Amino acid sequence: MHDLEVVADGEALARKAADYVARIANEAIAARGQFSIGLPGGSTPRALFKRLASPAWASRIDWARVHVFWGDERCVPPDHAESNYRLARETLLDRVPLPPEHSHRIAGELAPTEAAWRYEAELRAFFAGGEPEVPQPCFDLLLLGMGDDGHTASLFPGTAALHETARWAVENYVPRLNSWRVTLTVPAINTAAHVLFLVSGAVKAEALRAVLHGPRQPEVYPAQLIQPQAGRPLWLVDRAATTRL
């Protein structure tokens, strides 16, 4: 089950997504005094980050009450060209008045197992006050992308992380890329209050069709595993990505 909204192009996608982020942020801050968001990596969110950082949009959010997390990270240093944290920092976080201590990055420069456990500890400290009996985190909003192979976060086809049921964050080796990632787990994603997928480009069209309308094959198309307990995920996609729907 999902909701689907199609927009003309990448610019329209960034505009719609920014409006959605601002609305959920303001609702969360009004209700609980803070807003927790998980950011994606990849190329699609770059335009969104830049829009949120622009003067017209940055003023719509009380950044002093925002806490930023990441859905996944490559196991690289924070200044590496492929770092998801670096992308967000350069295009968004350095341009808005976010308190530095409200940026909860994944320490990709550490060994994968250590980075995953450290991130899990940070998640538990924030969402559970360190209490072990709290089953999962509850992000106000998770932004996710989807690769042309149907992966989301760093939940790649056929990898071990797809089967994790207890951890909040795990290290995940991706044989196709010969690299390690740290990723939120499926249960941690599915307890988010809101999940927004951002999908852009014709290269994603076949995977989008398979995920949304094909048979259930989560080992092949991991994005099918994302079914938030609080409601249906919203898929915000540009027209180029819908050519196979």
Topology:
Layout: E1 3-7, H1 10-32, E2 35-39, H2 45-53, H3 55-58, E3 66-70, E4 72-74, H4 84-91, H5 112-128, E5 141-144, E6 169-174, E7 179-184, H6 186-190, E8 195-199, H7 205-213, E9 234-238
Parallel strand pairs: 1-9, 2-3, 2-5, 5-8, 8-9
Antiparallel strand pairs: 4-7, 6-7
How would you describe this protein?
The model has no long low-confidence stretch (mean pLDDT 97). This protein has helices spanning 10-32, 45-53, 55-58, 84-91, 112-128, 186-190, 205-213, and strands spanning 3-7, 35-39, 66-70, 72-74, 141-144, 169-174, 179-184, 195-199, 234-238. It has a single domain (3-242), classed as Rossmann fold (3-Layer(aba) Sandwich). It is built from seven helices and nine strands. The chain is α/β, with parallel strands linked by helices. Strands 1-9-8-5-2-3 form a six-stranded parallel sheet, covered by helices on one side. It has a three-stranded antiparallel sheet with strand order 4-7-6. Helix 7 links the parallel strand 8 and strand 9 (234-238). 31% of the residues lie in helices and 18% in strands.
